[in-house]
Amino acid sequence: MQVKLEKRKYTPLEYKNYYLFILTIVLFYIGDAFRKFAFYFNWEFTKYTTLSKIICLVLFCLFFAFNIKSYLNQEEVRKLLNYLVILVISFFFGQFALQGIDIVDNLILNFEFLIKYLFFPIILIVFNPLLKNIDLIKHLFKLFEIIFLFNIILIFYGFFTNFSLFRTYYYGDRMGFNGLFSKSGQISYYFIILILFYYRSLLMKFELLTASKLFVVIIASLLVGTKKIFLFFPIILIYHLFFEKKKLKYLVLIGSLSMLIFILFYRKIVGYFEQTINVFYFYYKRDGFFSSLTSSRTDKLIDTVENYIRPHWSFFNYICGGGNFRDYRFLSGMDFIDLYFFLGIVGIFVITKIYYNFINLNFKDCFNIFFVFIIFSLSFFSSALLYEPSVNLLFLLIVPIIDSFNSKKVNLKV
Description:
transmembrane, Oligosaccharide repeat unit polymerase, transmembrane helix, membrane, 18 helices
């Protein structure tokens, strides 16, 4: 999907797209916040994130219907509509090919997950006019940035006061704080994507504000308590030492500031990391290295194969999938494996094609290779990328901005 980066006058459809995107960002965050409140106060209804996404989906459908002529004139939209049809057909075919199971009941209870997998191509269709204007995308990113930085304040507040509403985990001894974002996988990707973005911005042009944002985001990310983030930092450090070693002063700066923070809050920080390491060590001793690394996802994978795939799949399910994700019972928690379970080889091919067409980056730039590698390699061992609409919404914004870094026509200041 080619993103046009030149500045020009906005069309009415782009303006409408812009305000629809603002509404989507706000509704997603409200849904997350209410889900957090619901669990904290033990409300009977907890599916506020699902509700917010249903509202957005209805708005998307109405918006598309009112502007259908403009959309159908765009070749990218027509291709994406064809992909949607293929994915839907694959889902129904896979469900009806299942054996020894109530097909209608299974189909209805898994329809929510179908919508989650379709969300990225849907937002690519609905916001296709917006992708043609980098300036509007930058404005939308600023809104997301404001919400995210506000949430970071809540994370710090939770860390220093141990306020349980802002904890990442409500169960067990695992430590971590994620503010009002409701899912650990979701906020982990937020932090990783934003760290990569600020890091890239800093490499392009040093600005004190960007450096400050990067530092604050790095410190806050360590308080979330997810292994995904802890694994990410050694990888980006290795990248920097091999490919950006001429700019070691940034590492020295961040390291010096981190040491200052550590000295100021020594007891609190040491206590937090001691508890975090002890929990990881406990799972390592009990389950082994690989199982503890993937949070027992390998065990879930084996359970799914033994108790669902083998008893209920026919030959056609290996092509079209046929997942049963209700109550997250037969779901491994690893994005690409779950995509295969749900939509089969067809789903793997179509979803990969959609992302490939969208990520139109200049791969002569080694950072762009690293960006794509780190985002998708993490999803092999965890979830929250392929079927998490909130993460895809940020991904939709950040890819065109990163692509603009390679264009001399665009002001790089965001």
